[in-house]
Amino acid sequence: MLDIKKIREDFPILKREVNGKPLVYLDNAATSQTPQQVIDAIVDYYQNYNANIHRGVHTLSQEATDKYEQARIKIQKHFNAAKSYEIIYTSGTTHSINLVANGFSALIKEGDEVLVSAMEHHSNIVPWQMLCERTGAVLKVIPMNEEGELRIDVYDELLGDKTKLVFCNHISNALGTINPIEEIIEKAHEVGAAVLIDGAQAAPHLVADVQALDVDFYTCSAHKICGPTGVGMLYGKEEWLNKLPPYQGGGEMIAEVTFEKTTYADLPHKFEAGTPNICGGIAFGAALDYMNAIGFEEIAKYEHELLAYATQELLKIDGLKIYGTAENKTSVISFNIEGVHPYDMGSILDKLGIAVRTGHHCAQPIMDFFKIPGTVRASFAFYNTREEVDVLIAGVLKAKSMLL
Ligand code: PMP
Question: Which CDD domains does this one have (predicted)?
Answer without folding.
Answer: SufS_like (cd06453)
